[in-house]
Amino acid sequence: MALTGSLFGSVCYADLPSATDAFFASQSTFTYQSGSHIFQVSYQSISGVWSVVTTEISSVPNVVVSTVQALQPSLSSCDPLSGWNDGLLFGSLLLVAVVSATVYGIISRAL
Question: What pLDDT, in 10s, does the model give residues 49-99?
Fold first, then answer.
């Protein structure tokens, strides 16, 4: 089967946009100071596009200093159905074992 999903952390997402959303949503906001100014940097989804937003939080009201489109993270490909296929294989083997044990029990009673 073709690899159609994208891997972030230990989760295989069905598509790249879902994995990208998970990646940026997991990024922490941080602050830094430059002279007497304090800035907060965060990732925000603006109209479906992830952006790096820098806000000066030492002023009242807070002022957005810059908004730059975030770079697309490099995520590995994965098969989102691999877990389902593993479960299907395990379930099939378990079914074969149960059916075999039942048939053995029926034959042993008949003899």
Answer: 999 999 999 888 999 999 999 999 999 888 876 666 667 778 888 888 898
* DSSP per-residue codes, 79-96: -TTHHHHHHHHHHHHHHH
Instruction: Show the domain range for 90.
Output: 81-111
C-alpha dist (Å) from residue 58 to 41, 55, 68, 88, 100: 13, 9, 21, 57, 73
| Through-space distance between the first and last CA atoms of the chain, rounded to whole angstroms | 47
CA distance 25 to 75: 15
Indicate if 3 and 28 belong to the same structural domain: yes
